[in-house]
Amino acid sequence: MGAADIESIKNENKIVISYLSIGEAEDYRFYWNNSWLLHLPEWLDAENLDWPGNYKVKYWMPGWQQYIYAYLDIIIAQGSAQFRKSWTMLDKFHSRKVQKFAFLDV
Questions:
Q1: What are the backbone dihedrals phi and psi of residue 16, each rounded to the nearest 5 degrees, phi first?
Q2: In 36, 46, 49, 106, which residue has its Cα 20 to 30 A from 23's Cα atom?
Q3: pLDDT in tens, 51-64
């Protein structure tokens, strides 16, 4: 989905919901680097056995956060201008059990 698609949805007075997984790195995303499996970054953890290709991450570490911020920039560029405001909500979720996080663009 691109910026034109998102703008079309907004023009229909619909709410756009942007989703971003911060608790797992996924090997099919633009940021994935296959060399990580040979030389694990300190923030990369075990593969999620329920979701092959998804790897748990230490989302509080700056090395992982750089990829999350890059992903946020893409989402914002596509039209989710309010997305960054929700980033501060992460402070409320410092449990390793939290694997997914959704942001609402309102």
A1: -95, 125
A2: 106
A3: 999 999 998 899 99
